[in-house]
């Protein structure tokens, strides 16, 4: 995206999707190649990924020829997103998975924060600091994947807000996106503590339907913003995305 020369807001497009480890619903089909093509067609500036595999020996042996020789997040980054960061959240004998952020712009630094609760499912918050050309201050991005239990999600969002208070200056833009697993619609109220507003809720009255992919009913995924000038949800081609993963992605245009 070109840098504005007239002082107008710098526009940033973002997309978040739970990749379901590279498989369609119920693991029927390995779809990572199709997902990469869909991402390339959407061409956002920043991509937030959840449940992306860093390594999985068993799957690699079962899908010889199709399984990439590099990590899934590197494969998806391809040539469009020059910078990427990965936060490993869950480790098992065959490999590991976590969150990743792909960026067209330099990632100045990143850190993964473990927010797993009481030894249950591994969950993390991947915090990246981006340098966007034409914008004076860093842009903070946090990729989120919260737990399945409501009490765990509440604790994880409180930890998220503590992270924001500690590590994100109030005058610097912040984008938070990912799979909140928020089927009970509690996240918007809790995220007020972070000073963040949800893109779809503020513009359309409620979060987007994202799960299950073919017939979305539950509103599980979110994009939150703080200290930006404006934002707008972006439509995606539902027929394309409904065949990929078990979540449909959501996307937005952010004016910094």
Automatic annotation (TrEMBL):
GO molecular function: endonuclease activity
Residue ranges annotated for the Endonuclease/exonuclease/phosphatase domain, each copy included: 32-247
Any Pfam family the entry gives: Exo_endo_phos
Top-level taxonomic group: Bacteria
Coiled-coil residue spans: none
Keywords assigned by UniProt, alphabetized: Endonuclease, Hydrolase, Nuclease
Tagged with keyword Ribonucleoprotein: no
InterPro entries xref list: Endo/exonu/phosph_ase_sf (IPR036691), Endo/exonuclease/phosphatase (IPR005135), GPI-anchor_lipid_remodeler (IPR051916)
PANTHER family: CALCOFLUOR WHITE HYPERSENSITIVE PROTEIN PRECURSOR, PGAP2-INTERACTING PROTEIN
Protein name (database record): Endonuclease/exonuclease/phosphatase family protein
